[in-house]
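Q: Structure tokens for this one, please.
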Amino acid sequence: MSKRQKSISYRLKDVTKCPVCNFEHYREQMHSGGGRLIAGKLTRELRRLYEISKKFGRVYPMAYTIIVCPQCLYSSFQNDFNKLESDEATTLKNGSMARRQGIEKIVGPVDFNEDRNLVLGAASYVLAIDCYQKRGMDVAPTPKKAICAIRGAWLFGDMEEEFPGLGFKKIQDLLYMKAVQYYSPTLEIMSNGREPHEQFINLMGPDTDKNWGFDGVIYLNGYLTRKYLDQLAPTDEQKFQILDRCKMHLGKLYGMGKASSSKPTAIIDMAKDLYEEIAEMLEELTEKTGAGAA
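A: Here is the predicted structure, written as tokens:
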């Protein structure tokens, strides 16, 4: 098994030193090419599925994107790993025991000295959300928590399939709800610039194969809002307001014209389908309550 994993990834020659606890380790990176990834379909959540490779088995490219210190479990995207203010480093150091206890309650004992697998990949995103909660606005934590939440939800869904009945579906649902809560403010941030765009625009994915950027945020905010509408809005009036806002954003996305290199057919078609679904829901709400009527 270890031989197969080593053929998927490799260790960088330069040492990575944790800015929180000073532990040194050699970061793992996934090899590119060589038939490791056989692209399958794109889901409605903009996740790229991959077929199982005969040579390498099932590969999870998302599992490699978060750097995790094996000792204190400080976690972040690569560009943020060393960008710590002294007060952030102190807070993160003081929280290391709680991080370990929290993640091990969910997935059991973890050792990030080992090669990444599904479990460590899923755990890395939960750890990253926790760490970004303690970071300043200069690293744009909100959009990064949104990405970590949606990817974590996907991987915990995979874990539920792999290890059914161990409670991973509950964690997946929790992460989806976190994604919903983070995507709406991310949409605002992309309009008002409250958190620096250059810190997150190249990470918006939401998957690792293609960056859908602002369009992906608009679409996913609408998709997740529709999916979790009952949890987001207790009254029909609130549901109407939330859906109406999503419909407006989606209309701008798919109504801007024909497909192009920056707006491929896939995102336009999915946005149009979602727009029509939300329009139907708004009609039903209007008939039911008179919401939105002049």
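A few notes: The chain has two domains: 2-217, 233-294. The chain is about 50% helix and 10% strand.
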